[in-house]
């Protein structure tokens, strides 16, 4: 429903834009490499924007073969329109032969620092999770953000900021990428950042984000015609999402907490985030029991029936308890040729000036395991060995653990072009890939945006 | 576009292209069993466990349920035949009656291998554990075979009864059920006397020395089922084996043997435990340590185990578990007609079983082709190791073909065929053995 509302609103906005455009004489000019058409009274402005990511990655794999390749991982074209206090943006990605709607929203600037947004846009969660990939320090986000960050959703948001305070909140109703049948999800996400020190010498920031989510339906369960219990949360990151991949089925709710901190001082930067997730789970045991009927079998002592009550299901297959995962990273940067500058509108770092080099190191620790059972041949049994050997199940989630050490160099050729080079060493532990322990990867990117 | 630096742009392009080209290189061997079976981390049996493993007779011919091909399985006829044919082990499946008697029967109920529908109408799907030994002795466990396999039917199979574990041990020791001239069995009575009236008896057979016994003394290879079906049966088995002198760790009795004949019953490898159940093997290791054990492997294990058993991870996990609980023998299934079981005895799999110190007893053999395949003859130009122990590999397979890639013994439905394959002498043909034992057409 919200998706339809947003499309209608956006269409109306565009029609209005055209109408204004027909009445006013526009002047073309170049701004940071892009073309901007501006009306004489500066009240109306339209610009074209785009992006190209040319990537190469080479894996030094351990046992499992990973696909080293070169690719155009993102091509993006879009338009931004601004008229008075209103603005709109449409941005479509064509990377890797897929067409995806990215930013697509209508925005109302109630005041310079008080903004309402409706459409498809980033949910405000963490530092990396709310930032565009072009502004990230490394090629791609940390494993923490890749696994637990949220990205864009369709919704309505409000952002308020001052020099020292940044607050953003919103209600959202699922992703434009979800084409499964069943009800869309719901989420509410809030980010609050306080920057007690902001001056030319030092910027110090602390913040936190919280999101409460009902995951999107994954289609209908065929036997019960039910979408309520067919929802999943997938937390995945790293090379081909192999070694870090937690697929949490039967999800009911999904809560995530993020704490962030950043220090900028001249050419030095420190940034760290911690994220914890908690997914509650449930299943429709009553319907399953009604469908199955208690199964009777003869035994030495007379007879044995299973299941006889809904509680027999979790008793045998394992309880669908809450799943908790956690991750954090810390990174440090050094700029050669510029100093780090803080942007209070985004609560993040401004792009360094042309000709700057940036050197970075990062440590990331991502733990997608929540295990309380005994592992046998690809599945879990209860912690009690006897029960596990008897064949009972356990609903532990083994998404893998990793520690990653990364270094990066960025060269900002100008306002539109930058070169990136990353090396990461990933120490992985995943029972699905028992032979893989140490993965190395070199990534390079030529990044163009205008 | 000020500060445009061509040198830096070129450097960037070069880095990117270099990585692209490097990406085309295949830097790591493919992750498949064939590249990893030799190095995949495995636990290994301890020296103590290996000593127990060595109790087991080499190149064991294990008579699967006595025979499923020539006679009604797990009956006196099948086991007497297998003994006289020369099998090293008589294989059986253990179940327990409602009055606590350990029984040799494969299926969970008696529908396939008896006339239970007629004897106990409406109870034909009941498990064995619902009946007493006396009730089970009312059943005809032989006639079904004559209908199922008319080409191997014998009139004397009619009326054969279910065997207990004790019966099979006594057959292995050279005994047979005492019968009258009408071929009716004698049962023990509470007061120590004998009777042919089942109702007036305990249901336990009376045994006498088998006048047709040819001196072979095979061991026993007994399979326990999932413990939830028969709680504490492992403990019952341990007590029983000690009582009858078949527990090798507990003053085993001397069973007289004949030189030149099978003598396994008088060795420390006289009794081998086998099971598919991990729960059972843990219990067996607890109550019968020091007795050789075989961990059987099937395509999919019980409910909680989702990975197919033929992956390298699964094989390794199976081995590591087996080693942890001192299973000396891997018991994987083999492919091929007539059973079309899953293939869990590929050369690389056998190499892994052996690397852990285990020996391989695969199941179950019905054809010469299977015997040749799993003994590796096709790598040696069709020459069997029983023809030529020093046989040489014929052909350039470009990988390390070696004796560790093949089996050490097998469960066979045709002991006669396995004996012939191993070039072992037999007294008579399969059919003649039946005639000698008195099982007439």
Number of helices of chain B: 15
Helix content of chain A: 10-25%
Average pLDDT of chain B works out at 93
CATH architecture heading of chain A: Beta Barrel
Q: Largest sheet of chain B at a glance?
A: 8 strands, parallel, barrel
Instruction: Enumerate the spans of chain A where pLDDT stays under 50 for 5 or more consecutive residues.
Output: 1-13
CATH-defined fold name of chain A: Porin
Summed up, the helix count of chain A is: 5
CATH class of the domain at 51-109 and 212-437 in chain B: Alpha Beta
What is the first-to-last residue Cα distance of chain B?
102 Å
CATH level-1 class of chain A: Mainly Beta
**Percent range for β-strand residues of chain A:** over 45%
Q: How many strands in all of chain B? A: 14
According to DSSP, the number of beta strands of chain A is 26
Shape of chain B from CA axes?
elongated
Defining key terms:
heterodimer, A: about 450 residues, mainly beta, Porin, 16-stranded antiparallel beta barrel, about 10% helix, globular, B: about 450 residues, alpha/beta, TIM Barrel, two-stranded antiparallel sheet, 15 helices, about 15% strand
Question: What this model shows, in words?
Answer:
- The complex is a heterodimer of chains A (450) and B (441).
- Chain A is mainly beta and 450 residues long.
- Chain A has helices at 2-23, 143-148, 285-292, 312-317, 385-389, and strands spanning 26-31, 34-39, 44-60, 69-83, 86-93, 100-111, 114-122, 152-161, 165-172, 186-198, 202-214, 233-237, 244-248, 251-265, 268-281, 295-299, 302-306, 323-336, 342-343, 348-349, 357-370, 374-376, 379-381, 397-412, 417-429, 438-449.
- In chain A, strands 3-4-5-6-7-8-9-10-11-14-15-18-21-24-25-26 form a 16-stranded antiparallel barrel. Chain A has a two-stranded antiparallel ribbon with strand order 12-13.
- The longest helix of chain A has 22 residues, at 2-23.
- The radius of gyration of chain A is 25 Å and the shape is globular.
- Chain B has 441 residues and is of the alpha/beta class.
- Chain B has a domain at 51-109 and 212-437: TIM Barrel (Alpha-Beta Barrel), CATH 3.20.20.
- Chain B is 29% helix and 13% strand.
- Chain B contains 15 helices and 14 strands.
- In chain B, the strands form three sheets. An eight-stranded parallel beta barrel of chain B has the order 1-2-9-10-11-12-13-14, surrounded by seven helices. Chain B has a two-stranded antiparallel sheet with strand order 5-8. In chain B, strands 6-7 form a two-stranded antiparallel sheet.
- In chain B, helix 4 (76-85) packs parallel to helix 8 and helix 4 (76-85) crosses helix 15.
- The longest helix of chain B is centred in the first third of the chain and has 19 residues, at 6-24.
- The model of chain B has no long low-confidence stretch (mean pLDDT 93).
- The chains are: A mainly beta (450), B alpha/beta (441).
- At the A-B interface, strand 3, strand 16, strand 23, helix 5 and strand 25 of A face helix 1, helix 10 and helix 11 of B.
């Amino acid at each position: 429903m919200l998706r339809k509302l947003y499309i209608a609103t956006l269409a109306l906005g565009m029609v209005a834009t055209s109408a204004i455009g027909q009445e006013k004489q526009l002047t073309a000019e170049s701004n940071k490499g892009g073309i901007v058409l501006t009306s004489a009274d500066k009240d109306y402005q339209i610009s074209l924007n785009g992006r190209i990511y040319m990537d190469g990655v080479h894996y030094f794999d351990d046992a499992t073969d990973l696909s080293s390749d070169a690719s155009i991982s993102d091509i993006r074209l879009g338009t931004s329109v601004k008229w008075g206090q209103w603005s709109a943006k449409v941005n479509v990605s064509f990377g890797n032969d897929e067409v995806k709607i990215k930013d697509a929203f209508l925005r109302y600037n109630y005041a310079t620092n008080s903004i309402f947004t409706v459409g498809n846009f980033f949910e405000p969660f963490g530092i990396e999770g709310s930032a565009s990939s072009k502004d990230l320090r490394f090629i791609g986000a940390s494993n923490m953000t890749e696994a637990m960050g949220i990205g864009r959703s369709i919704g309505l948001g409000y952002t308020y900021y001052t020099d020292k305070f940044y607050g953003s909140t919103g209600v959202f109703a699922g992703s434009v990428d979800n084409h499964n049948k069943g009800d869309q999800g719901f989420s509410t996400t809030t980010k609050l950042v306080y920057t007690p020190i902001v001056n030319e010498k030092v910027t110090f920031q602390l913040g936190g984000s919280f999101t409460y989510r009902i995951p999107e339906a994954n289609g209908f369960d065929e036997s019960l015609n039910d979408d309520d219990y067919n929802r999943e949360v997938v937390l995945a990151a790293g090379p081909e999402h192999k070694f870090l991949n937690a697929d949490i089925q039967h999800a009911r709710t999904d809560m995530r907490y993020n704490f962030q901190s950043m220090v900028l001082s001249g050419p030095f930067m420190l940034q760290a985030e911690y994220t914890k997730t908690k997914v509650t789970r449930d299943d429709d045991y009553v319907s399953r029991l009604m469908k199955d009927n208690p199964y009777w079998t003869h035994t030495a002592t007379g007879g044995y029936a299973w299941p006889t009550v809904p509680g027999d299901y979790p008793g045998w297959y394992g309880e669908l308890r809450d799943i908790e995962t956690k991750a954090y990273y810390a990174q440090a940067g050094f700029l050669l040729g510029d100093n780090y500058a803080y942007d209070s509108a985004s609560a993040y770092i401004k792009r360094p000036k042309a000709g700057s080099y940036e050197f970075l190191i990062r440590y990331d620790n991502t733990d997608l395991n929540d295990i309380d059972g005994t592992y046998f041949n690809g599945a879990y049994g209860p912690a009690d060995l006897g029960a596990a050997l008897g064949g009972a199940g356990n609903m532990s989630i083994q998404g893998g653990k990793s520690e990653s050490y990364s270094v990066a160099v960025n060269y900002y050729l100008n306002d539109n072009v930058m070169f990136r080079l990353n090396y990461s060493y990933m120490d992985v532990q995943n029972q699905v890939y028992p032979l893989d322990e140490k993965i190395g990867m070199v990534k390079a990117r030529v990044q163009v945006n205008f | 576009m000020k500060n445009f630096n061509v040198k830096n742009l070129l450097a960037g392009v070069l880095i990117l292209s270099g990585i692209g080209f490097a990406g085309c290189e295949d830097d790591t061997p493919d992750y498949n069993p064939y590249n990893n079976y030799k190095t995949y981390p495995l636990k290994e049996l301890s020296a103590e466990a290996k000593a127990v493993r060595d109790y087991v007779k080499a190149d064991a011919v294990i008579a699967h349920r006595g025979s499923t091909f020539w006679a009604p399985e797990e009956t006196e006829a099948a086991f007497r035949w297998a003994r006289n044919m020369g099998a090293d082990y008589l294989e059986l499946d253990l179940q327990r009656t409602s009055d606590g008697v350990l029984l040799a029967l494969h299926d969970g109920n008696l529908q396939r291998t008896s006339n239970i529908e007629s004897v106990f109408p409406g109870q034909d799907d009941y498990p064995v554990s619902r009946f007493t030994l006396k009730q089970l002795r009312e059943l005809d466990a032989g006639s079904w075979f004559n209908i199922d396999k008319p080409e191997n039917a014998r009139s004397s199979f009619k009326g054969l009864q279910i065997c207990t574990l004790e019966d099979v041990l006594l057959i292995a020791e050279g005994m047979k059920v005492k019968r009258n001239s009408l071929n009716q069995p004698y049962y023990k009575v509470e007061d120590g006397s004998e009777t042919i009236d089942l109702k007036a008896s305990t249901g336990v057979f009376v045994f006498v020395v088998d006048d047709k016994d040819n001196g072979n003394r095979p061991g026993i290879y007994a399979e326990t089922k999932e413990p939830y079906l028969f709680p504490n049966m492992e403990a019952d088995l341990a007590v029983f084996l000690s009582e009858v002198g078949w527990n090798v760790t507990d003053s085993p009795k001397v069973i007289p043997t004949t030189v030149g004949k099978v003598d396994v019953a008088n060795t420390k490898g006289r009794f081998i435990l086998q099971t598919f159940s991990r729960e059972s093997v843990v219990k067996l290791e607890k109550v019968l340590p020091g007795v050789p054990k075989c961990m059987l492997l099937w395509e999919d294990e019980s409910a909680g185990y989702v990975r197919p058993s033929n992956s390298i991870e699964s094989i390794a996990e199976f081995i590591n578990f087996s080693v942890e609980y001192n299973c000396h023998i891997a018991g994987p299934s083999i492919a091929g007609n007539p059973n079309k079981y899953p293939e869990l005895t590929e050369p690389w799999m056998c190499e892994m079983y052996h690397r852990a110190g285990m020996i391989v007893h695969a199941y179950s053999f019905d054809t010469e082709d299977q015997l040749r395949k799993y003994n590796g003859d096709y790598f040696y130009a069709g020459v069997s190791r029983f023809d030529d122990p020093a046989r040489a590999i014929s052909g350039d397979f470009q990988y390390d073909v070696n004796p560790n890639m093949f089996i050490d013994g097998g469960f066979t439905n045709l002991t006669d065929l396995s004996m012939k394959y191993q070039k072992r002498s037999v007294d008579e043909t399969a059919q003649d053995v039946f005639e000698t034992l008195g099982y007439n057409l």
